[in-house]
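ok here's Probable imidazolonepropionase:
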Amino acid sequence: MSNKLLVKNAKQVVLICNNGEKFLTKDGMQKLCVIENSSLVIGSDGLIKDIGPASTIDFQYAGVLFDKVIDATGMCVIPGLVDAHTHPVWAGDRVHEFAMKLAGATYMDVHRAGGGIHFTVEHTRAALPSTLLASLTGRLGRMQRAGTTLVECKSGYGLELQTELKMLEVIETARRTLPINISSTYCGAHAVPKGKTVAEATTDILKVQLPQLRERMSAGALRVDNIDVFCEQGVFDLSSTRSILQAGLDMGLNINFHGDELHPMNSAQLGAELGALAISHLEEVTDDGIAAMATAKTAAILLPTTAYILRLPQPRARDMLEAGVIVALGSDFNPNAYCCSMPVVMHLACVNMRMSMPEALAAATINAAYALGRSHTHGSLEVNKHGDLLVLNAPRWEHLIYQLGGHQELIRYVVIRGNVVYNNDKTMDF
Ligand SMILES: N=CN[C@@H](CCC(=O)O)C(=O)O
Ligand SMILES: [Zn+2]
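and the structure:
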Protein backbone atom coordinates (compact mmCIF):
# COMPACT_ATOMS: atom_id res chain seq x y z
CA MET A 1 0.00 0.00 0.00
CA SER A 2 1.25 3.46 -0.81
CA ASN A 3 1.96 6.03 1.85
CA LYS A 4 -0.56 8.81 2.29
CA LEU A 5 1.55 11.91 2.30
CA LEU A 6 5.05 13.27 1.85
CA VAL A 7 5.65 16.83 3.02
CA LYS A 8 9.04 17.62 1.64
CA ASN A 9 11.79 20.11 2.11
CA ALA A 10 10.18 22.32 4.76
CA LYS A 11 12.24 25.25 5.98
CA GLN A 12 11.25 24.41 9.57
CA VAL A 13 9.44 21.43 11.07
CA VAL A 14 8.31 22.18 14.62
CA LEU A 15 8.13 18.80 16.34
CA ILE A 16 7.37 20.46 19.73
CA CYS A 17 9.11 17.57 21.53
CA ASN A 18 10.72 14.31 20.44
CA ASN A 19 11.09 12.07 23.46
CA GLY A 20 7.50 10.97 23.93
CA GLU A 21 6.83 13.69 26.51
CA LYS A 22 3.18 13.75 27.58
CA PHE A 23 3.36 17.46 28.49
CA LEU A 24 5.88 20.26 28.77
CA THR A 25 6.51 22.64 31.67
CA LYS A 26 8.91 25.46 32.47
CA ASP A 27 12.09 25.31 30.34
CA GLY A 28 10.64 22.53 28.21
CA MET A 29 8.05 25.00 26.90
CA GLN A 30 10.73 27.56 26.03
CA LYS A 31 12.90 25.21 23.98
CA LEU A 32 10.70 23.53 21.44
CA CYS A 33 12.21 20.94 19.18
CA VAL A 34 12.54 22.51 15.69
CA ILE A 35 14.40 20.94 12.79
CA GLU A 36 15.36 22.72 9.57
CA ASN A 37 15.25 21.66 5.91
CA SER A 38 13.31 18.51 6.71
CA SER A 39 10.64 16.22 5.33
CA LEU A 40 7.88 14.18 6.94
CA VAL A 41 6.17 10.96 5.83
CA ILE A 42 2.65 9.85 6.80
CA GLY A 43 1.94 6.18 6.20
CA SER A 44 -1.19 4.48 4.87
CA ASP A 45 -2.58 4.24 8.42
CA GLY A 46 -2.52 8.04 8.80
CA LEU A 47 0.26 7.90 11.39
CA ILE A 48 3.62 9.64 11.14
CA LYS A 49 6.12 7.17 9.73
CA ASP A 50 9.28 9.20 9.39
CA ILE A 51 10.67 12.68 9.96
CA GLY A 52 14.18 13.73 9.05
CA PRO A 53 16.53 15.78 6.91
CA ALA A 54 15.09 16.30 3.44
CA SER A 55 18.08 14.64 1.76
CA THR A 56 17.80 11.51 3.95
CA ILE A 57 14.06 11.14 3.33
CA ASP A 58 14.62 11.70 -0.42
CA PHE A 59 17.13 8.89 -0.44
CA GLN A 60 15.14 6.47 1.76
CA TYR A 61 11.87 6.96 -0.11
CA ALA A 62 13.22 7.13 -3.67
CA GLY A 63 10.75 5.23 -5.86
CA VAL A 64 8.16 4.85 -3.05
CA LEU A 65 4.57 5.79 -3.89
CA PHE A 66 2.67 8.56 -2.11
CA ASP A 67 -1.01 9.48 -2.53
CA LYS A 68 0.05 13.12 -2.28
CA VAL A 69 3.25 15.12 -2.13
CA ILE A 70 3.39 18.66 -0.75
CA ASP A 71 6.43 20.68 -1.68
CA ALA A 72 6.94 22.81 1.43
CA THR A 73 10.01 24.64 0.18
CA GLY A 74 10.24 27.94 2.08
CA MET A 75 7.36 26.92 4.36
CA CYS A 76 6.97 25.62 7.92
CA VAL A 77 5.24 22.58 9.34
CA ILE A 78 3.73 22.53 12.84
CA PRO A 79 1.43 20.05 14.59
CA GLY A 80 -2.30 20.61 14.21
CA LEU A 81 -3.53 22.94 16.94
CA VAL A 82 -5.53 21.59 19.87
CA ASP A 83 -8.39 23.68 21.27
CA ALA A 84 -8.96 22.40 24.81
CA HIS A 85 -12.20 24.27 25.66
CA THR A 86 -15.21 25.07 23.49
CA HIS A 87 -19.01 25.28 23.73
CA PRO A 88 -19.83 24.90 20.01
CA VAL A 89 -23.38 23.43 20.10
CA TRP A 90 -26.06 26.08 20.56
CA ALA A 91 -28.81 28.06 18.91
CA GLY A 92 -29.46 31.79 19.25
CA ASP A 93 -26.53 34.18 19.16
CA ARG A 94 -25.94 36.81 21.85
CA VAL A 95 -24.77 39.75 19.81
CA HIS A 96 -27.25 41.96 21.73
CA GLU A 97 -25.52 41.03 25.00
CA PHE A 98 -22.15 42.02 23.60
CA ALA A 99 -23.57 45.52 23.26
CA MET A 100 -24.80 45.39 26.91
CA LYS A 101 -21.38 44.28 28.11
CA LEU A 102 -19.64 46.99 26.10
CA ALA A 103 -21.96 49.45 27.87
CA GLY A 104 -20.77 48.17 31.27
CA ALA A 105 -22.87 45.11 32.27
CA THR A 106 -20.83 42.29 33.83
CA TYR A 107 -21.12 38.62 32.87
CA MET A 108 -23.05 37.89 36.08
CA ASP A 109 -25.33 40.95 35.66
CA VAL A 110 -26.46 39.50 32.34
CA HIS A 111 -26.70 35.96 33.76
CA ARG A 112 -28.80 37.04 36.79
CA ALA A 113 -31.11 39.02 34.52
CA GLY A 114 -31.99 35.74 32.78
CA GLY A 115 -29.64 36.25 29.83
CA GLY A 116 -26.28 34.65 29.18
CA ILE A 117 -26.35 30.87 29.48
CA HIS A 118 -30.12 30.96 30.23
CA PHE A 119 -30.83 32.73 26.92
CA THR A 120 -28.84 30.11 25.03
CA VAL A 121 -30.50 27.27 26.96
CA GLU A 122 -33.94 28.46 25.90
CA HIS A 123 -32.97 28.55 22.21
CA THR A 124 -30.99 25.31 22.30
CA ARG A 125 -33.83 23.40 23.97
CA ALA A 126 -36.12 24.51 21.14
CA ALA A 127 -33.69 23.68 18.31
CA LEU A 128 -33.87 20.56 16.16
CA PRO A 129 -30.84 18.24 16.24
CA SER A 130 -30.39 18.82 12.49
CA THR A 131 -30.20 22.59 13.04
CA LEU A 132 -27.68 22.16 15.82
CA LEU A 133 -25.62 19.77 13.71
CA ALA A 134 -25.57 22.16 10.76
CA SER A 135 -24.31 25.07 12.88
CA LEU A 136 -21.82 22.84 14.71
CA THR A 137 -20.46 21.62 11.37
CA GLY A 138 -19.99 25.20 10.19
CA ARG A 139 -18.22 26.20 13.40
CA LEU A 140 -15.92 23.17 13.38
CA GLY A 141 -15.09 23.96 9.75
CA ARG A 142 -14.08 27.47 10.74
CA MET A 143 -11.91 26.10 13.55
CA GLN A 144 -10.30 23.62 11.18
CA ARG A 145 -9.49 26.34 8.66
CA ALA A 146 -7.85 28.24 11.54
CA GLY A 147 -5.63 25.22 12.19
CA THR A 148 -7.48 23.28 14.89
CA THR A 149 -7.32 19.51 14.34
CA LEU A 150 -8.42 18.32 17.83
CA VAL A 151 -11.16 20.14 19.73
CA GLU A 152 -12.97 19.65 23.00
CA CYS A 153 -16.75 20.12 22.61
CA LYS A 154 -19.07 20.59 25.61
CA SER A 155 -22.78 20.10 26.11
CA GLY A 156 -24.30 22.38 28.76
CA TYR A 157 -27.06 24.42 27.13
CA GLY A 158 -29.77 21.91 28.05
CA LEU A 159 -29.48 21.57 31.83
CA GLU A 160 -32.00 18.71 31.64
CA LEU A 161 -31.71 15.17 30.36
CA GLN A 162 -33.32 15.48 26.96
CA THR A 163 -31.42 18.49 25.69
CA GLU A 164 -28.11 17.45 27.21
CA LEU A 165 -28.42 14.12 25.39
CA LYS A 166 -29.48 15.91 22.20
CA MET A 167 -26.31 18.01 22.35
CA LEU A 168 -24.06 15.03 23.10
CA GLU A 169 -25.65 13.09 20.23
CA VAL A 170 -25.01 15.98 17.86
CA ILE A 171 -21.37 16.04 19.01
CA GLU A 172 -21.22 12.25 18.52
CA THR A 173 -22.51 12.57 14.95
CA ALA A 174 -19.89 15.22 14.23
CA ARG A 175 -17.21 13.01 15.76
CA ARG A 176 -18.20 10.08 13.54
CA THR A 177 -18.60 12.01 10.31
CA LEU A 178 -16.15 14.93 10.27
CA PRO A 179 -12.37 14.68 9.96
CA ILE A 180 -11.64 16.94 12.95
CA ASN A 181 -10.82 15.02 16.15
CA ILE A 182 -13.29 15.64 18.97
CA SER A 183 -13.12 15.17 22.74
CA SER A 184 -16.67 15.20 24.08
CA THR A 185 -17.63 16.70 27.44
CA TYR A 186 -20.82 16.37 29.46
CA CYS A 187 -21.44 19.78 31.07
CA GLY A 188 -24.96 19.38 32.48
CA ALA A 189 -23.84 21.48 35.47
CA HIS A 190 -23.13 24.56 33.36
CA ALA A 191 -25.79 26.60 35.18
CA VAL A 192 -28.58 26.01 37.67
CA PRO A 193 -31.73 25.74 35.55
CA LYS A 194 -34.45 28.33 36.15
CA GLY A 195 -36.89 27.19 38.85
CA LYS A 196 -34.42 24.77 40.52
CA THR A 197 -32.13 25.14 43.53
CA VAL A 198 -28.49 24.05 43.39
CA ALA A 199 -29.41 20.99 45.46
CA GLU A 200 -32.27 20.04 43.12
CA ALA A 201 -30.11 20.55 40.03
CA THR A 202 -27.34 18.43 41.58
CA THR A 203 -29.79 15.64 42.43
CA ASP A 204 -31.15 15.70 38.87
CA ILE A 205 -27.63 15.35 37.48
CA LEU A 206 -26.67 12.56 39.89
CA LYS A 207 -29.90 10.59 39.80
CA VAL A 208 -31.31 11.22 36.31
CA GLN A 209 -28.78 12.59 33.82
CA LEU A 210 -25.59 10.67 34.69
CA PRO A 211 -27.30 7.24 34.93
CA GLN A 212 -28.90 7.75 31.49
CA LEU A 213 -25.58 8.88 30.10
CA ARG A 214 -23.86 5.81 31.52
CA GLU A 215 -26.45 3.59 29.88
CA ARG A 216 -25.95 5.16 26.44
CA MET A 217 -22.19 5.02 26.81
CA SER A 218 -22.17 1.34 27.68
CA ALA A 219 -24.54 0.59 24.78
CA GLY A 220 -21.95 2.23 22.48
CA ALA A 221 -24.44 4.90 21.37
CA LEU A 222 -22.40 7.75 22.80
CA ARG A 223 -18.77 8.33 23.54
CA VAL A 224 -18.21 10.93 26.27
CA ASP A 225 -14.69 11.69 27.44
CA ASN A 226 -14.93 14.35 30.14
CA ILE A 227 -17.17 15.74 32.89
CA ASP A 228 -17.45 19.48 33.53
CA VAL A 229 -19.11 21.72 36.15
CA PHE A 230 -19.20 25.53 36.33
CA CYS A 231 -17.91 25.91 39.90
CA GLU A 232 -18.72 29.53 40.74
CA GLN A 233 -20.55 31.73 43.24
CA GLY A 234 -24.23 31.74 42.28
CA VAL A 235 -23.75 28.64 40.10
CA PHE A 236 -22.43 25.32 41.54
CA ASP A 237 -20.71 25.56 44.94
CA LEU A 238 -17.71 23.51 45.95
CA SER A 239 -19.61 20.66 47.56
CA SER A 240 -22.09 20.12 44.70
CA THR A 241 -19.18 20.40 42.26
CA ARG A 242 -17.33 17.72 44.20
CA SER A 243 -20.22 15.27 44.15
CA ILE A 244 -20.89 15.73 40.42
CA LEU A 245 -17.22 15.42 39.43
CA GLN A 246 -16.76 12.37 41.66
CA ALA A 247 -19.79 10.68 40.08
CA GLY A 248 -18.36 11.39 36.61
CA LEU A 249 -15.00 10.02 37.64
CA ASP A 250 -16.67 6.86 38.92
CA MET A 251 -18.16 6.40 35.43
CA GLY A 252 -14.73 6.61 33.85
CA LEU A 253 -14.91 10.23 32.69
CA ASN A 254 -11.95 12.60 32.95
CA ILE A 255 -12.49 15.60 35.18
CA ASN A 256 -12.11 18.84 33.23
CA PHE A 257 -14.09 21.72 34.75
CA HIS A 258 -14.62 25.50 35.00
CA GLY A 259 -13.04 26.85 38.18
CA ASP A 260 -11.92 30.00 39.97
CA GLU A 261 -13.13 32.21 37.10
CA LEU A 262 -14.94 35.11 38.73
CA HIS A 263 -14.25 34.39 42.43
CA PRO A 264 -11.62 32.35 44.26
CA MET A 265 -13.56 29.15 45.03
CA ASN A 266 -10.69 26.77 45.86
CA SER A 267 -11.65 24.93 42.66
CA ALA A 268 -7.97 24.32 41.89
CA GLN A 269 -7.43 22.56 45.22
CA LEU A 270 -10.59 20.48 44.69
CA GLY A 271 -9.53 19.49 41.19
CA ALA A 272 -6.05 18.54 42.33
CA GLU A 273 -7.52 16.43 45.15
CA LEU A 274 -9.85 14.59 42.75
CA GLY A 275 -7.08 14.01 40.22
CA ALA A 276 -8.64 16.30 37.60
CA LEU A 277 -6.93 16.18 34.24
CA ALA A 278 -7.64 19.88 33.74
CA ILE A 279 -9.30 22.99 35.15
CA SER A 280 -10.28 25.90 32.91
CA HIS A 281 -10.27 29.67 33.48
CA LEU A 282 -8.49 30.17 36.85
CA GLU A 283 -8.50 33.97 36.61
CA GLU A 284 -8.96 34.01 40.43
CA VAL A 285 -6.80 31.04 41.42
CA THR A 286 -4.80 31.40 44.65
CA ASP A 287 -1.13 30.59 45.26
CA ASP A 288 -2.19 27.43 47.10
CA GLY A 289 -4.34 26.44 44.15
CA ILE A 290 -1.43 26.90 41.76
CA ALA A 291 0.84 24.78 43.97
CA ALA A 292 -1.79 22.04 44.25
CA MET A 293 -2.23 21.89 40.46
CA ALA A 294 1.52 21.70 39.86
CA THR A 295 1.85 18.78 42.28
CA ALA A 296 -1.19 16.91 40.93
CA LYS A 297 -0.22 17.49 37.26
CA THR A 298 -3.64 18.97 36.66
CA ALA A 299 -3.44 21.11 33.51
CA ALA A 300 -4.56 24.74 33.60
CA ILE A 301 -6.58 25.53 30.47
CA LEU A 302 -6.24 29.28 30.12
CA LEU A 303 -8.78 31.14 27.97
CA PRO A 304 -7.44 34.52 26.85
CA THR A 305 -10.64 35.44 25.00
CA THR A 306 -12.76 35.39 28.19
CA ALA A 307 -10.62 37.85 30.11
CA TYR A 308 -10.35 40.01 27.00
CA ILE A 309 -14.06 40.16 26.21
CA LEU A 310 -15.27 40.43 29.82
CA ARG A 311 -12.43 42.75 30.79
CA LEU A 312 -11.49 40.44 33.67
CA PRO A 313 -8.09 40.28 35.33
CA GLN A 314 -5.84 38.10 33.20
CA PRO A 315 -5.13 34.55 34.43
CA ARG A 316 -1.72 34.46 36.14
CA ALA A 317 0.02 32.51 33.40
CA ARG A 318 3.54 33.52 34.45
CA ASP A 319 3.00 32.45 38.08
CA MET A 320 1.57 29.14 36.90
CA LEU A 321 4.43 28.55 34.47
CA GLU A 322 7.03 29.37 37.10
CA ALA A 323 5.37 27.00 39.57
CA GLY A 324 5.59 24.18 37.01
CA VAL A 325 1.88 23.97 36.16
CA ILE A 326 1.05 22.33 32.81
CA VAL A 327 -0.41 25.33 30.98
CA ALA A 328 -2.75 24.71 28.03
CA LEU A 329 -4.90 27.04 25.93
CA GLY A 330 -8.46 27.02 24.61
CA SER A 331 -10.60 29.37 22.54
CA ASP A 332 -13.63 29.10 24.88
CA PHE A 333 -15.75 29.44 21.73
CA ASN A 334 -19.30 30.10 22.99
CA PRO A 335 -22.04 32.70 22.40
CA ASN A 336 -20.23 35.01 24.85
CA ALA A 337 -16.78 34.62 23.30
CA TYR A 338 -17.21 34.12 19.56
CA CYS A 339 -13.69 33.12 18.58
CA CYS A 340 -12.81 30.06 16.50
CA SER A 341 -9.13 30.83 16.06
CA MET A 342 -6.34 29.32 18.12
CA PRO A 343 -3.77 31.56 16.38
CA VAL A 344 -5.68 34.57 17.77
CA VAL A 345 -5.84 32.86 21.17
CA MET A 346 -2.06 32.33 21.13
CA HIS A 347 -1.52 35.96 20.17
CA LEU A 348 -3.69 37.14 23.09
CA ALA A 349 -1.90 34.72 25.43
CA CYS A 350 1.43 36.26 24.46
CA VAL A 351 0.40 39.91 24.62
CA ASN A 352 -2.05 39.88 27.54
CA MET A 353 -0.82 36.94 29.61
CA ARG A 354 2.86 37.49 28.86
CA MET A 355 3.56 34.05 27.51
CA SER A 356 6.38 33.62 25.01
CA MET A 357 5.57 32.34 21.52
CA PRO A 358 7.11 28.88 22.18
CA GLU A 359 5.13 28.64 25.45
CA ALA A 360 1.93 29.55 23.64
CA LEU A 361 2.52 26.96 20.91
CA ALA A 362 3.33 24.23 23.46
CA ALA A 363 0.16 25.22 25.34
CA ALA A 364 -1.90 24.95 22.13
CA THR A 365 -0.46 21.59 21.09
CA ILE A 366 1.10 19.02 23.46
CA ASN A 367 -0.28 20.51 26.69
CA ALA A 368 -3.79 20.99 25.31
CA ALA A 369 -3.66 17.38 24.09
CA TYR A 370 -2.59 16.34 27.62
CA ALA A 371 -5.56 18.24 29.10
CA LEU A 372 -7.81 16.06 26.90
CA GLY A 373 -5.97 12.82 27.70
CA ARG A 374 -4.71 12.60 24.10
CA SER A 375 -1.05 13.54 24.28
CA HIS A 376 0.05 9.96 23.56
CA THR A 377 -1.45 10.32 20.07
CA HIS A 378 -1.66 14.07 19.40
CA GLY A 379 0.04 17.37 20.11
CA SER A 380 3.51 16.82 18.62
CA LEU A 381 5.07 15.54 15.42
CA GLU A 382 6.62 12.23 16.46
CA VAL A 383 6.75 8.86 14.77
CA ASN A 384 3.57 6.81 15.37
CA LYS A 385 1.50 9.81 16.40
CA HIS A 386 -1.43 10.94 14.24
CA GLY A 387 -0.44 12.70 11.03
CA ASP A 388 -2.21 15.96 11.98
CA LEU A 389 -0.29 19.02 10.85
CA LEU A 390 -0.36 22.49 9.34
CA VAL A 391 1.79 23.77 6.50
CA LEU A 392 2.39 27.49 6.95
CA ASN A 393 3.30 29.79 4.10
CA ALA A 394 5.99 31.57 6.11
CA PRO A 395 9.72 31.04 6.64
CA ARG A 396 9.41 30.96 10.46
CA TRP A 397 6.58 29.37 12.43
CA GLU A 398 6.24 32.36 14.75
CA HIS A 399 4.45 34.27 11.98
CA LEU A 400 1.29 32.35 12.91
CA ILE A 401 1.22 34.16 16.27
CA TYR A 402 2.88 37.42 15.28
CA GLN A 403 0.46 38.22 12.43
CA LEU A 404 -2.70 38.97 14.43
CA GLY A 405 -5.62 37.51 12.49
CA GLY A 406 -3.20 36.48 9.73
CA HIS A 407 -3.96 32.76 9.76
CA GLN A 408 -6.33 33.04 6.81
CA GLU A 409 -3.39 33.85 4.59
CA LEU A 410 -0.69 31.91 6.41
CA ILE A 411 -2.22 28.45 6.72
CA ARG A 412 -1.61 26.76 3.36
CA TYR A 413 -2.73 23.22 4.22
CA VAL A 414 -4.47 21.55 7.15
CA VAL A 415 -3.81 17.80 7.31
CA ILE A 416 -5.62 15.28 9.53
CA ARG A 417 -4.45 11.66 9.61
CA GLY A 418 -2.52 12.26 6.43
CA ASN A 419 -5.49 13.66 4.50
CA VAL A 420 -5.51 17.26 3.30
CA VAL A 421 -8.74 18.60 4.84
CA TYR A 422 -8.11 22.20 3.84
CA ASN A 423 -6.16 23.43 0.86
CA ASN A 424 -5.98 27.19 1.00
CA ASP A 425 -4.84 28.03 -2.48
CA LYS A 426 -5.62 31.69 -1.87
CA THR A 427 -2.54 32.12 0.32
CA MET A 428 -0.29 34.89 -0.85
CA ASP A 429 3.43 34.75 -1.22
CA PHE A 430 5.09 35.65 2.00
N1 LIG B 1 -18.07 30.37 32.35
C1 LIG B 1 -18.86 29.53 31.96
N2 LIG B 1 -19.03 29.07 30.72
C2 LIG B 1 -18.57 29.69 29.52
C3 LIG B 1 -19.50 30.74 29.03
C4 LIG B 1 -20.71 30.15 28.49
C5 LIG B 1 -21.72 31.14 28.07
O1 LIG B 1 -21.68 32.32 28.51
O2 LIG B 1 -22.60 30.74 27.29
C6 LIG B 1 -17.13 30.10 29.55
O3 LIG B 1 -16.33 29.21 29.76
O4 LIG B 1 -16.76 31.26 29.34
ZN1 LIG C 1 -16.45 27.40 29.14
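+1. Residues 85, 87, 258, 332, 334 surround zinc ion (ligand 2) (CB under 6 Å).
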